[in-house]
Amino acid sequence: MELNKYFWPAFFWTVFVTVSCLVSMDALSNVDPFNFRYKDKAVHFCFYFLFTVFWYLFFQRLKNRAKSRVRLTVFILATIYGACIELCQWLFTTGRTADMVDIAANMGGSTLAIICLWLFSKIK
Fold it and tell me: For 84-93, what is each residue's pLDDT tens digit?
């Protein structure tokens, strides 16, 4: 598979999301400039919005890929990845807990990204 210029942003964003979701953030709790209800869900939403956009840009630039198929593939990958992260939080971390609402927030961010990508492709 040929790498294009979107691989590294997608790869590093995935690493960032993975570390952010699996490392305890207790040390940063005193440095929190944003204090609002459901902040955690908003962060998940944004993480997976960008995750979906970055991986879409990478896969869409591969040879002769239908955009609708790429959007579906990336959405499925984002959903599976998000569920795996929650499973890892449940199994392997002590300061983090798995949450089905986090998975819903992940899917919401990914869904909005897919809709935006679809609308953008209609404008072009």
Answer: 999 999 998 8
The torsion defined by the Cα of 19, 56, 77 and 34, in degrees rounded to 10, comes to: 40
**Left if phi > 0, otherwise alpha if psi is -120 to 50, otherwise beta: which for 64?**
left
Q: Between the ranges 9-13, 34-38, 97-101, where is the mean pLDDT highest?
A: 9-13
pTM, two decimals, is 0.88
* 31: helix, strand or coil: helix
Question: Any residues with CB less than 8 A from the CB of 103 and at least 6 apart, and which?
Answer: 79, 82, 83, 86
SS (H, E, C) 47-79: HHHHHHHHHHHHHHCCCCCCHHHHHHHHHHHHH
Q: Please, where are the H alpha helices in 1-124?
A: 7-22, 39-60, 67-92, 100-123
